[in-house]
Amino acid sequence: EPEVTQTPSHQVTQMGQEVILRCVPISNHLYFYWYRQILGQKVEFLVSFYNNEISEKSEIFDDQFSVERPDGSNFTLKIRSTKLEDSAMYFCASSYTGNYYGYTFGSGTRLTVV
Amino acid sequence: GENVEQHPSTLSVQEGDSAVIKCTYSDSASNYFPWYKQELGKGPQLIIDIRSNVGEKKDQRIAVTLNKTAKHFSLHITETQPEDSAVYFCAAPRSGNTPLVFGKGTRLSVIA
Q1: Does A33 touch chain B (CB under 8 A)?
Q2: DSSP letter string over B25-61?
Q3: Does B46 touch chain A (CB under 8 A)?
């Protein structure tokens, strides 16, 4: 069964450093998403991406965050200057038609900012 | 925007019993309601979904019911097994084809 692949599985970084989280969505999917989950809390929407541009973003997705699809397969989330409160699990998801068939999530990247 | 409330936050059942998790949503234009299961250390996995043109959908031991008038939908798991133990999330789009908003999750423990 096709999977969404995320790397790395765990990233530790110092406060103020830049991090890039990587995702390889399912190959024929057209919609891409980043969500985050602070430990023990709900899954929160960050940003959606379609047709090579951001289609929607939440209030969490401020100027410190950016997304990119640098080639035909990768989808990245960059945090420019990490803060302690950015520590969370970050999940990438993809979908073929948006909501009609649901999202497939990756296994996540655990980001720890120290 | 959409607000999704989920209850209960934790649920313990004996193996073989049924489990029911309920969610309410606020946007009457929402038309798609998935349920996700998250096991420890993994991402959420879609287990069942329902669209607003039907009231119930069943897949083996799992069923989802939707009441559009009351704006709530429920997950029903029958004959629970220890491997059903996980965190379950409901979700709904803000509206139409917009990104999903998730509930806070229900930690289900099935006791053997």
Answers
A1: yes
A2: ES-TT--EEEEEEE-TTS--EEEEEEETT-SEEEETT
A3: yes
